[in-house]
Request: fold
Amino acid sequence: MGREVLSCRGVWFRYPDGTEALRGVSFSVHQGEVVVLLGPNGAGKTTLLLVLAGLLEPSKGRVFFRGRDVRELGPELRKYVGLVFQDPDDQLFCPTVFDDIAFALRQIGLPEEEIRIRVLDLARELGIEHLLDKAPYRLSYGEKKKVAIATVLIYGPEVLLMDEPTASLSPRYVRFLEELVAEGVDSGRTFVIATQDVDFAYEVADYAYVLVEGRVEAEGRPGELLSDPELLEKAELREPRKLSEILLKRTGLAELPGRP
Ligand SMILES: Nc1ncnc2c1ncn2[C@@H]1O[C@H](COP(=O)(O)OP(=O)(O)OP(=O)(O)O)[C@@H](O)[C@H]1O
Ligand SMILES: [Mg+2]
Reply:
């Protein structure tokens, strides 16, 4: 495994209304690793991603990118760490899908012709080419999710933070996303993914954190965490289908007849 890329130590975060969303969270992800954040609604997954992206400043504790405190790095962090928001409406704000995907490249001042080529290539790869001239607010929710992912993939940050990327995507597109993550890892990228989708998590993750009420309830290999009945109960999760199949085969129950 590569070296530690992004981490935090003893992070607390309190929203202005007093909600204590993170209560002493320590986390780390290594280069080329896929880490998932699991846990019930309101557990603090999104808040942790926002803290890791440098968009929220912890009330206590520190965040490090390659060993440097992100407060020292400032806005430079954005070059290295990209976040796909849970709500695509937080990500998309341009008049057209093309402009939204092109945004980061225009920020770094690439020539427009180069931008066109890159945006078209990525849009083709993601199957959203037909949406490029549309206004983002007119897209379906699933289409928005795909475009939101594209706006980050386009500039290829080293670390991709994704918040519920599979929500509202068709099953076939979820498979596609799994491949995309695997390819990303092959080219040295690092992923931190908050998700309620245990099948997706089991498929892509090397390591998992389970958050409950702003604390790390458990961390470890997805196969171990996701087969622990007590933990699944606490985290309001279910066992991934693949794991259930393996267990069924072992107990011979898979041989039972199905519907008559
Ligand atoms: N802007 C905000 N102001 C006040 N409280 C907030 C705000 N955003 C989130 N919270 C609260 O912080 C806690 C953690 O929320 P967060 O969105 O991080 O959870 P989550 O694990 O991502 O949940 P979900 O699975 O529903 O996306 C919740 O109790 C939530 O109500
Ligand atoms: Mg969330």
Remarks:
- Residues 15, 17, 19, 21, 39, 41-47, 86 surround adenosine-5'-triphosphate (ligand 1) (CB under 6 Å).
- The chain has one domain: 4-88+157-255.
- Strands lie at 4-14, 20-30, 34-38, 60-65, 68-69, 81-84, 159-163, 190-194, 207-212, 215-220.
